[in-house]
Design goal:
Length: 250
């Protein structure tokens, strides 16, 4: 007899002023959207998930492929698809989350550049189909309790690295003040190499975004500053502020 599939949490939302929040059956926030600017990024840590832009030439971005593991409120998926004009793929296990994003969070229908796939992120990253096909991999995989990443093994991060193109980058949302953070960071450093991993300081809420490059790259500070200025003017992200909090994760 086939084992029963695990039950998935109920999906709901709440509005506070101009901000709509996504919840998975608890008070924990799983994503957000400004009602008057549904395609912008409102939360600071989610903005930082875009910091891979610092390591790519801005003029090449629209020709690249972004993948999100965990749809959340669709914020990263919408931004990559609508604002950056990238080929964008999102992997989400819970069909209720996909439906909620389409009904409540302005997620567009699939088209020639957008594909939202119902599936298990662990199976996706292990599949040969995606090998070396992703330029920007954004990993935000928390359950309804938001206690620790659902997928967090060294093997998982090795599979994530295998998805990346030669100059590709992974960003991961971790809880920087949690006891699990150092363990997660150590696994990423083993999978990618210690000199290929960068990290932000935690946000006020405790989220720490870690960047891991397929191959180590250490741009000059001036080059990063020039790219940050372009990112701010072109896409409205606080990239110059990123430079004050982003360092090699030694």
């Amino acid at each position: 007899m086939k084992a029963a599939a695990p039950s998935l949490p109920e999906v709901n939302f709440s509005d506070h002023g101009d901000i709509r929040y996504l919840h998975l059956g608890t008070e924990w926030i799983q994503g957000s959207m400004r009602l008057d600017a549904p395609f912008e990024i409102e939360l600071e840590y989610v903005q930082r998930m875009m910091a891979w832009l610092l390591f790519m030439q801005p003029q090449t971005v629209s020709r690249r492929h972004a993948m999100q593991l965990g749809l959340g409120a669709g914020t990263l998926t919408k931004f990559c698809h609508r604002k950056l004009r990238m080929k964008t793929t999102a992997i989400e296990l819970n069909p209720q989350v996909v439906a909620a994003c389409r009904i409540w969070f302005k997620l567009p229908k699939d088209d020639s550049r957008l594909s939202v796939i119902l599936g298990d992120a662990q199976e996706v990253v292990a599949h040969e189909h995606w090998r070396e096909q992703v330029d920007a991999l954004q990993v935000d995989l928390y359950d309804h309790e938001a206690a620790a990443p659902v997928l967090d093994s060294e093997a998982f991060y090795r599979d994530c690295r295998s998805l990346l193109t030669e100059d590709g980058c992974m960003t991961v949302n971790l809880f920087g003040r949690s006891s699990s953070y150092e363990r997660s960071l150590a696994r990423i450093r083993i999978a990618f190499g210690a000199d290929a991993v960068w990290a932000f300081r935690p946000t006020r809420e405790g989220n720490t975004v870690v960047l891991a490059l397929r191959e180590p790259v250490h741009p000059l500070r001036g080059e990063l500053a020039e790219r940050a200025a372009v990112i701010e003017s072109k896409w409205g992200l606080p990239a110059r502020k990123w430079l004050r909090g982003l360092k090699l994760a030694g």
